# Entry
Amino acid sequence: MGEDGTATTSVTERLSTVLGERFERVRRTLGSPLRTTRTAVVVGRLLGAAFVICFLTGVYSHLLQDPLPWLPLAVGPEHLYGWTQGTHVVVGSLLVPLLLAKLWVVFPKLFTWPAIRSLPHLLERVSLAVLVATALMVPITGILNTLQWYPWVFSFRRTHFALSWVLIGALAVHIAVHLPLIARQWRADAEEKTSAEDGRDISRRGFLWGVGGASALFGVAAAAHTATPIGPFSLKEPRSRIGSPQDLPVNRSARQADVTPASVDATWLLTLGTGATALALSRTDLEALPQHSEVLPMSCVEGWTVDATWTGVRLRDLLALVSAPKDATVRFRSLQRRGAFGATTMPAAYAQDPRTLVALRLNGEELDLDHGYPARVIAPGRPGALQTKWLTSIQVA
Ligand SMILES: Nc1nc2c(c(=O)[nH]1)N[C@H]1C(S)=C(S)[C@@H](COP(=O)(O)O)O[C@H]1N2
Ligand SMILES: [Mo]
# Structure
């Protein structure tokens, strides 16, 4: 290369100087007394805690839906899942303003020159890009799911779950890299409690109150969605549009699932089988068996929970009829011909729980067709998606 090489170097150098100056100017223009490390750390702490809460409650929800054979979960209190999933949705919503605030505060850092200083620095930048992308994607897909709006082709559940692992990994790297800075800020916070405030502190306080207020608003909206009765201010409303009989939201109506009244007429039979024995029970047969009532919540993964009184036959009584082993996993099939949740699996601990019913009645009335007539599953502490409607068979694995 010789002379050419020297010339190239100087062009690169000059370009670097020019870009460096440009970046510096942009950074100064974007500068604000609010865009400080301190604000970034204060918001970051809350945001990090929120992501961790969502991750843990999310993993719990997935473990209930896809149990690991080596990690059998005990049947908890019946409202446990309603609480963990309600927390997941509320915290996942209120972190959105925190996330936007954090991105706004650190935005000028994008204009730091040189953009990449070393190989470790390059890796850190890449993991940060991954963190920002997933931190946006995970809450956005989650919130759209609670609104039952799917402007994408991929499976929501699998994508949301996979991205959350990437997010938590990138978050761990981010925290590890910034640990000295975070620790320094924590110590400075403790010291500053004793010193007087200046003007900068007051405007920072205003900013943090604003972010906190927006965050609280998101949280309250999500909590209303989770806890308020069906009505114009409840986000359970999208479901009640299709009628919501018997004071319980309907996620997929019989019509949407292609379950026709003819398929559930007097000829309907529930098959009950193990490898060796099979029984077919009519609705009259089921009504003739001992009936039990339980107040159990319907807790949807979308965050809402509604309690109802369910009446029907204990699943364990049915399983005993075909001499099913007590440790058997149970597989349910629905008459449903379209969409997800037509077949579900229940671990033995739930199948043997005395509260688990094959429900025939709801809140003192015969099950509505939209609630799974002639018979549906209701078990304590399970995600709503697993409370299979329009049962047609119960198989012991
Ligand atoms: N067969 C079948 N069962 C189902 C569903 C379904 O789509 N098909 N939806 C589930 C979901 S996601 C929830 S939250 C509850 C909703 O309760 P519902 O019976 O009030 O609709 O039913 C569950 N049972
Ligand atoms: Mo659901």
User: Anything to note?
Assistant: The first strand starts at residue 270 and ends at 273.
